[in-house]
Amino acid sequence: MTFTVIDPGIMTTVQDTGRWGYQQYGISPSGCMDTSSAALANLIAGNDPDCALLECMMSGPEINFNDKTSFVITGADFAPLFNGIRIPAYTLIHAKAGDMLRFKGLRNGMFAYIAFSGGIDTVPQLGSRSTHLHSRLGGFDGRQLKRGDVVPVGEPENPSINSKDIKLNIRPYWSSDITLRVIPDRQEGAFTKDGLRTFYAATFLLTSSCDRMGYRLDGPYIEHTGSADIITDGIVFGSVQVPVSGDPIIMMADHQTTGGYTRIANVISCDLPKLAQSAPGTRVKFTSVRVDAAQRELVGTIRQFNEIRSLVNRIVKG
Amino acid sequence: MKYNISPVGDSALSISFGNAIDPLINDQVLYAAQLIADAGYKSIIELIPAYCTLTVVYSPEISDCEYLEMMINMLLRNVKDVPKAKGRQVTIPVCYGGDYGPDMKNVADHTGLNPDEIISLHSSVSYRVYMLGFLAGFPYLGGLDKRLATPRLAKPRLSIEAGSVGIAGMQTGVYSISSPGGWQLIGRTPLKLYDPTSDKPSLLAAGDMIHFQPITSSEFQELSSASDIAAAAYGDTATANASCSKTLTADSGTAEVIK
Question: Between vectors from CA A243 to CA A242 and to CA A245, what angle results, nearest 5°?
Answer without folding.
Answer: 105
